[in-house]
Amino acid sequence: MADExxxxxxxxxxxxxxxxxxxxxxxxxxSAAEPxxxxxxxxxxxxxxxxxxxxxxxxxxxxxxxxxxxxxAKRVELIEKERALRGVSNIPxxxx
Length: 96
Known about the structure:
single chain; 5 strands; 27% helix; 34% strand
């Protein structure tokens, strides 16, 4: 099972970043006319199954990589806003 690839339809997941209660995914299907895909993944449903949304495909790798990184950056911004709203410190916990 360790060698098993994560697939979304015919697209193989190449990169995934878990942030802010979800995931941003970049996947590839080398045989497709538009081989690169980026999407959001969430599990907030009764069965905790993967739900893919906000799907974008392209033949341009750099375009899709920019979209992937922009989505990840937006999720980081959400985390920063939530921390500020809740008054969560950015100082790491230590043994003191």
